[in-house]
Design brief:
The complex is a heterodimer of chains A (about 400) and B (about 110). By secondary structure, chain A is an all-alpha fold. Chain A has three domains: about 100 residues; about 120 residues, no CATH class; about 70 residues. Chain A has 19 helices and two strands. In chain A, helix 1 packs antiparallel against helix 2, helix 6 crosses helix 8 and helix 17 runs antiparallel to helix 18. Chain B has one domain: Dimeric alpha+beta barrel (Alpha-Beta Plaits), CATH 3.30.70. Helix content of chain B is about 15%, strand content about 35%. Chain B has two helices and six strands. Chain B is globular and about 45 Å long. Chain B starts with a strand and ends in a 7-residue tail after the last strand. Classes of the chains: A mainly alpha (about 400), B alpha+beta (about 110). Chains A and B meet through loops of A and helix 2 of B.
């Protein structure tokens, strides 16, 4: 691996960790970010000549800390704070950039920094779009331009969003910490929601022009892995990771070469990633044994029912319908449950339940589901009308192409 | 950190004007987080003042005609936003109105 490649990999792996530590020790997000950027720039200059150090993360943290000390001296920050930044707690430290011994903090303290950063970026007092942007910038190390592209907004607008977020954290006094135990039940879902939104933003858009967004899927999985490592006792974190892995294992089969959506039923199961499915079901089984179920574990269990069925006909629809019943009954969840019941008990039963569903006006999947039930009941004329209604509501091209094809296949 | 809690509600909140705070004030006083505060008379008794071209202009009523109006305020001094949220969420008015938490601009060091 070339130094440039190594640097790139180190950048992805270490940015969040180094920044998280610097935010803690400086107490200032902007200064921390500048120091970390300077440390990475120093690495870019030094490593091609000196070689990549054994512990690149420690080297970067040390360099960034020194920059922070310089800054504090300039700003005449109190000596107590200076000592905190220069803290030396472990005599077996690695050598700093100038060759002098530079002791490291205990690994547990440093690792908690990442969790602090995660919870602070995902604080519910911040708007959802701000949480997502801050998470990508600080934890994943994406550039402002990359985030702007992923969310189809201008770079200036994204830059403003990030700055305002950091200013709110600072001026509104959002604490840089892992919430105390009594707050964890309400704060952990906020972190999980951000990661899942990130995943879905990437997953929903894998076609041509939007290819850049599929990187979000990998970032979301990487951050979910990190969260599982940092919160080993939180079964919902494992549930979320399992859910992402199960969806992502089907990534190669979701779209036909011509960009048309391929339904779960018609996907080529031999091309699903078996190793990823196995990892996910192992994770999920271990999480479920903690007997603290939650919405992500239930959704992962549903995805596992699909992913582990050898053929579409083998799908355990009664189990899936039962699992949907365990989720909060939003209209979309009710619709999914009706689809599952329609598969388990027949399209006639599904159609009856669909007629009683309210609250999803304008959502194309309602007429699309109706069309599917009618098609399976052999009521082609009514099915065609429902497909046309769905086509008027659908917005994305792959779904549109799929519905159009189904409509044409009807023998009306 | 200092925060102003602005206790807001629509007209129906007036019915709660004499409710008291159900032990909230006592608890917060004991914790030493309250710096001051009061309930307010209804917005229809408000007078709005502007000075333009050295002329004092008065309007009868609140500065903005919105459905929700400020019915009271509390200035608190606590550790961080998490504690401010906890304090605000415990206030009885949070169950029928809304409470806006505004960080107070830090003054020059004294």
């Amino acid at each position: 691996m070339s130094v440039a490649e190594q640097l790139d990999r180190v950048f992805r792996e270490e940015w969040g960790q180094v920044l998280a530590t610097l935010i803690r020790v400086t107490g200032d997000w902007e200064v921390a970010e500048e120091c970390v950027q300077e440390a990475f720039a120093a690495a870019l200059r030094r490593w091609p000549e000196d070689g990549v150090p054994d512990k690149p993360g420690a080297w970067l943290t040390t360099t960034a800390r020194r920059r922070a000390i310089d800054w504090m001296r300039r700003e005449a920050v109190g000596s107590a704070k200076l000592r905190e930044v220069a803290v030396m707690t472990d005599p077996d430290g690695v050598a700093g950039p100038d060759g002098a011994a530079w002791p490291q903090e205990p690994a547990s303290v440093v690792q908690d920094d990442l969790l602090r950063l995660m919870f602070t970026c995902c604080h519910p007092a911040l708007a959802m779009e701000t949480r997502v942007a801050l998470t990508l910038r600080t934890l994943a190390g994406l550039t402002t331009a990359e985030i702007a592209r992923a969310f189809l907004v201008g770079e200036d607008a994204m830059s403003k969003r990030l700055t305002r977020g950091k200013q709110k954290i600072k001026h509104a006094g959002i604490p840089y910490r892992v919430p105390p135990d009594h707050l964890l039940p309400e704060r952990t879902p906020a972190v999980l929601a951000v990661l899942y939104l990130l995943f879905n933003e990437g997953y929903a858009a894998t076609a041509g022009a939007e290819l850049v967004r599929s990187g979000l899927t990998e970032e979301a999985i990487r951050l979910a892995r990190l969260l599982v490592r940092l919160m080993p006792d939180e079964p919902e974190a494992a549930g979320l990771l399992a859910l992402m892995l199960l969806h992502n294992a089907r990534r190669d089969t979701r779209l036909a070469p011509d960009g048309v959506l391929v339904t779960l039923e018609d996907q080529d199961r031999s091309r699903w990633r078996l190793d990823e499915i196995t990892e996910a079901t192992d994770l999920l089984d271990a999480a479920l044994q903690r007997r603290r179920p939650g919405p992500y574990q239930v959704q992962a269990a549903i995805a596992a029912c699909h992913a582990t069925a050898p053929t579409a006909a083998d799908t355990d629809w009664p189990q899936i319908a039962a699992l949907y019943g365990q989720l909060k009954q939003t209209p979309v969840v009710q619709l999914n449950r009706i689809v599952a019941i329609g598969m388990a008990d027949g399209p006639g039963v599904g159609l009856k339940l669909l007629d009683q569903l309210h609250g999803l006006d304008g959502y194309y999947l309602v007429p699309a589901t109706r069309a599917d039930f009618l098609r399976r009941l052999g009521r082609a004329t009514e099915a065609a009308a429902a497909y046309r209604a769905a086509l008027e509501l659908v917005k994305t091209a792959p779904e549109q192409a799929f519905l159009q094809r189904r409509l044409e296949q009807l023998s009306v | 950190m200092k925060y102003l809690l602005m206790i807001c509600g629509d007209e129906s909140a007036e019915a709660h004007a004499m409710d008291g705070c159900g032990g909230w004030s006592e608890e917060m006083e004991a914790r030493g987080v309250v710096e001051g505060g009061a309930g307010l008379r209804p917005p229809r008794e408000a007078t709005t003042v502007r000075v333009r071209d050295d002329e004092v202009l008065l309007t009868d009523g609140p500065f903005a005609e919105t459905k929700e109006q400020i019915g009271g305020f509390v200035l608190i001094d606590c550790a961080d936003l998490d504690e401010a949220i906890e304090i605000a969420a415990k206030h009885p008015a949070a169950t029928y109105g809304t409470i806006e938490i505004r960080p107070v601009v830090a003054g020059p060091p004294r």
